[in-house]
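Z., the sequence and structure:
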Amino acid sequence: MDDLAAGKGNFINGFRVPDGFVVEQFASDNDTSSVLCMTFNGKGQLLTAAAGSGPTEIRILDALNGFCTGHRVFYPGLHCQGMCAIGADIYVIGNGKLYFLQDKNGHADSHEPLCPELLGPELTDVAKRFDPAKILEDIVYPSKVVDARYRQIVFKTKDGQRIAGFASAETEDSLSVTNGEAVTVILKKADIELKTATDKSIMPDGLLDTFTPEQIRDLLAFLESGK
């Protein structure tokens, strides 16, 4: 950094780097035009989400001896605002939903929404509103500070059932109650005996219990990619 401050270093294609570092072109514009975001998968391959004239196209950039030799379409037609890889599989966020793309020998056959309904706050710009420490704290301790919109409500019916979740839809005579696992139960209003608001979030506890430190870092990087 001292060399840069002093105006020293190499200038290559507009990049200024300290002495001892070299910038080389990895791929041509044909393979990298209109890139919205990118990530490396567990195979060491670089994936990009490229916006063309239509929906985003997720590509794998093939490489030989450290240089891109072309690209293959991993999955077409999915709006992508950020993505990360766990192994060879890809998680994509877009349109307020999180999608899972399973690798099938270098491509994905379909995109599966992990959360088909928007059960919580919009996450595509969460990194603009909170720093990484706050985001991690909210995931680890989801009920520490809970927005009133996402408090868990317990509904007791006249036949003794107890259903916990939040009201995701309502008609004149019915109420849809959705829990943190995206399971929805429709209750008749006439059958509800008691409704009790709690201090507990609809977001489940222990979401990161099975994650490795590397996977937690990947998740935070993924959420930050929506900036």
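The helical segments are 2-5, 29-32, 126-129, 132-140, 213-224. The mean pLDDT is 81.

Let me know what you think.
H.
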